[in-house]
Amino acid sequence: MSEKPIVIEVKDLCKTYYMEGGASQVVLKHINFKIYEGEFVAIMGHSGSGKSTLMNTLGCLDRPTSGEYFLAGESVAKRTDKELAIIRGQKIGFVFQNFNLMMKRSIVDNVSMPLIYQGVSENERRERALEMLKIVGLEGYGDRPPSQISGGMQQRVAIARALINHPKIIFADEPTGNLDSITSDEIMNLFTELNKKGITIVLVTHEDDVADYAKRMIKISDGRVEYDGLRKEYHA
Amino acid sequence: MIYQILREAWISISAYKLRTFLTMLGIVIGVASVVLMVAAGQTVSNEITKTFDSMGTNLIILAPAETVSGGVRGGRGRPSITFKDVEALKSLKDVETTSYVVNAAVQAVYGSNNYGVSVYGTNPDYLAVGNWEIESGMAFTEKDVKAGKPYIIIGQTIVDELFGLQNPIGKVLRLKGQPFTVIGTLKAKGDNLMGQDQDNIIMMPVTTLRQRLRGSNRPQYTDIAFVKVTQEDKMESVSKRIEYLLRARHYLKEGAPNDFSIHLMTEMVEKVQNVGFILSLLLSSIASISLVVGSIGIMNMMLVSVSERTREIGTRKALGAPNRWIMFQFLMESIIISFMGSFIGMILGVILSQIAGKMLDKQVPISLWSVVISASVAIFVGVVSGIMPARKAMKLDPIEALRYQ
Ligand SMILES: Nc1ncnc2c1ncn2[C@@H]1O[C@H](COP(=O)(O)OP(=O)(O)OP(=O)(O)O)[C@@H](O)[C@H]1O
Ligand SMILES: [Mg+2]
């Protein structure tokens, strides 16, 4: 396992929110772990334990208060907003709980949107978007708006969008939170398929069924890593 | 990259057609009214120039000095300029010709028709001085003036009102019961700036007017005198010479005020045109209030748009959109709206001003100003009303924005 390159490495990662009026809340406390290329990790924990905060930090949407964070070997803990935007655009794919698609735009426009900021030409954007739609099983839907398809299909569109910049890693915060159990299974099967092709996936969930698709599990409790190991060896 | 920003901005605003249209309407109305007002101002200014041109601009007008009592200007003073004075002015350097007018307002009668008319008692040179041309027949001569012949030249209004389709030449009409023979008609000039009919005029030898229409009170004096100067740049020097000569002829002592007043047509043109310029400035600044309102409309729409699209902005940022890209997209959206609004407003303003011109029978110029105004409004309003919402979008924290419902 350790022959594979490291995609994510966090050392002593801490996050404190400072609120107006001087109050502060320590949300992440000295987190340490490594994620290797090709892994499929589920982050679990109670509500308010700090899962989303961790994901946002790993996803370069936020900076840690202290500690080190290496993404694909590069230190990213102290980058400017502009640099973080470039890193997100080139190395990271996001899948959200509520899909976050632009309902007035075509599916192709949605899928190819990240490439606009990479300076990719319109023709190439479309080509790559159609290719991604094929991968997520939505061939032929490209020119419709997302409002015409089901929630599960919309999440597939979002996954295609996350894949389009060939990211180092995909972060999914509760990707099945808005879906029924059958559709959830379909989406999780898609993630499993993508993972088999070598794509690194980190997802946040508090559903055990969903977490079962992942090989590895990191459990956060009150801002600390409570468990980090194989999912099937975890006994609550 | 500019093209991509433009495209994204365009697609975004065309997703909200009605809202975009209504917002744009504010700018359309604003620009259209400014263009309309500028056109109105320019039309007035052109009409002024035309009126003065119809009188001739290298003209110096002499009148009795205004009465001044206790620093307050009164009306026209005692007659002071004699026909002999006017004759003497003719010999001054750079003077083309001189003339004078003694007025009378009377009722003109021909058969069963009658019409109120302004009668000018003058000399034949008045035609040249006042830029009048003979349409048919001929003018009276210096000899007729000496002899006090009852010959008259009539304007087109009198032709129409009294004679209709008949040829007026050789006909006799009556003024104050006395007969006058029409020997010529004048080419039409139309209304002047104040809407007065310049063609409601009868010209006759001044001697005839004195004898038959005005009585012989102070018969050697004229109401008003005209000096036509050979070239416009000689106006100042000629007016100096006139003043010198008239003071000498009137035996005015040094220090005594002039008993006459000198008005240069060129100065009057300038004054009136200044008024015209101020008028159009005033009109367009009133109209630009509607532009300010339109601009506030854009700002308002963009602010609503930014808060409605908070999650879209968050998503774009999470997927790698740099902050500046987001800012430029929103700025571009407001620029597009104000640009299209200005363009449509300009076209509308030009069309409306032309229609108004047709209806009022006035030549309305299509000026470069309307293009300049619209273009600057397009950019200025777009940037000014877009910058605040665009900065708001730029500053959104992606995490907050994604959590926004
Ligand atoms: N911007 C913020 N400012 C202040 N406190 C915050 C902020 N974001 C999160 N928190 C706090 O940090 C703690 C962790 O929040 P977080 O969203 O990471 O939890 P979570 O594990 O994702 O919970 P859930 O399962 O409900 O999504 C919570 O107590 C929350 O109130
Ligand atoms: Mg959460």
What does this 3D model show about the protein?
The complex is a heterodimer of chains A (236) and B (405). Helix content of chain A is 32%, strand content 28%. Chain A is an alpha/beta fold. In chain A, strand 4 and strand 5 (74-75) form a beta hairpin. In chain A, helix 3 crosses helix 4 (122-135), helix 4 (122-135) packs across helix 5 (151-163) and helix 5 (151-163) runs parallel beside helix 6 (181-196). With 405 residues, chain B is an alpha+beta fold. Chain B has 2 domains: 2-51 and 271-403, no CATH class; 81-258, no CATH class. Helices cover 56% and strands 19% of the residues of chain B. Chain B has helices at 2-14, 17-55, 83-89, 126-129, 142-147, 156-163, 206-214, 235-249, 265-308, 310-318, 323-360, 368-395, 398-403; strands spanning 59-64, 66-69, 72-76, 95-110, 113-122, 134-137, 151-154, 172-175, 178-186, 201-205, 224-229, 260-264. A 6-stranded mixed barrel of chain B has the order 4-5-10-7-9-8. Chain A binds chain B through residues 56, 59, 61-62, 81-82, 85-86, 88-90, 94, 96, 100, 102, 104-105, 109, 113-114, 116-119, 161, 165, and chain B through 1, 4, 8, 11, 15, 311-312, 314-323, 325, 398-399, 402. Adenosine-5'-triphosphate binds at residues 17, 19, 25, 27, 45, 47-53, 206 of chain A.
